[in-house]
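Fold these two proteins, one after the other.
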Amino acid sequence: MVNESGASVYSASKAARLEFPDHDVTVRGAVSIGRRLMDPLAELVKIDPKTIG
């Protein structure tokens, strides 16, 4: 199971929009959650710690 905390924050971020300019926030959020499954720490460092619940 993958915790989705912060995925919505990343999906709306400038970094996500630059990385996936042709996709909406739903797709960017799904990518973030999938990446978190593969490498949690690498994905979590992209998110401001204050936004993680």
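Now the second one:
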Amino acid sequence: MPTTARLPVALSTLLAAVGLVAALRGAPLTDTPEIHLQLGKLLYAEARYGEALAAFRTALASAEGRARVEARVGAVQAAMRIGDFAAVRDEAARLRDESRGDPEARAVYGDALWSAGLFAEAEAAFRESLAIDPEQPRGHNGLARALMARSRHDQALEHSLLAVGLEPKEAEFHHTLGNVYERLGRYDAAAGALSSFIDLLPKGIADPRAALAGAELRFLSSFGKKAPYEFISDPDRVYTLPFRLEQDKILVRGRVNGSQPLDFVVDTGAELTTISRDTGERERVAGVTYTVSAGVGEVGMRVLQLGRIEKLEVGPIKVKRVPCILKSPALRELPAPEGESLSPLAMGLSVGVDYRRRILTLARRLPDDGPADVTLPLWMNRLATVRGTVGIDHPRSFVVDTGGEVISISADTAKVLPPLVTRKIGLKVFGASGWDRDAYLLPGVDLAFADIRFRRLSVVVLNLRAPSVLLGYDLGGIVGHRFLSRYRVAIDLDRAELRLTSS
């Protein structure tokens, strides 16, 4: 399995070897599941995940016992690597039934649930793995991710360090450790963990993770020993700011490096604060390195610059060394130029929105405003997500996006619904990655978020394939202004909750 794979031999040597073994045993290659299992492992180690998936599936056709569990684990992990979320769900369901009592397989089952956006079920699987074997490294790694997504960073660090200590040669575990350190604001330690991740990736093999991790390492290292998001104003104060609402977007005024006031869209659907290329050039926000971003639109994966705002001011809030994305190179042919957006969640600030009074509340700990009408568990897995159910029984994760406008579902989510009996209504939708030419309006969708239920709702269907692959989990959809503005909203990181109260 990938957790134990070593540096691969040349596949030509492997194929010659397996052919010899098959000949010596007098068995056709197609009848030897063990050979296909080993081939799958070596293809996986060479980052040839699609071919590895095919080899594991061939092995599954006749494998039994332990070999079958190993092949199923390999198939799940290969499908996750290529972002084939439908295959992940299918293989994971079988793994669940075939691996009871196997702690590593249960942890991989948790990984599969995680990639499907079923975070609560994934956490339960990780805990089940550790109940069987308290020293199961993949179980600790998965639980670290779950705790981090619930803002339990100190506990996440404990489990992540255990995973790395138990299996120090597993690159993935070092990457998780780096993510935990980054969420804790310890960029120097995060850089060290990411460096270990890169060192452990197979050498001489085209693995896109290496290039992305290298860029992230350069960015983290640029901070040296200095912490990001250093508050000049009181970090524990509860800040209230007036906002304007234009085109279903929350706008506040802010300054970049002492600039003239600029409009910022308050965007909980973005990983980082973003600024336009023009503002970056004018206010001398230098790009440190390049990264890959993904959003709605035909561009899909988009190369942009990572930079650092030396001083960001939004009303009374003043923060030094704010990581940001520079929209450079800029997209062309958009209906309006790309502007600035503020990501309070990336700054560790919970968000309260009173749409009726036009008041925005930002704080590390939001004040207690009494019981909410509806409370949903919040998972901060790079983006803030909550659980929704599409149709009768299709659970999916939805991004909570104050910068978005409508309620949408992904094109992959739409595929699980009954066929349309009406004509699709084409839409012209522009997102962070340009024009989504395949977007359409889908009528008659049942949708539920806990006790909030919509019957026969018209939703926008978007191509969310690129952001799902980049994030590493299947995005079911997005809830924006038309959903959130019905309520007084609290996106509470400290309590890991989305609270909705009727205005």
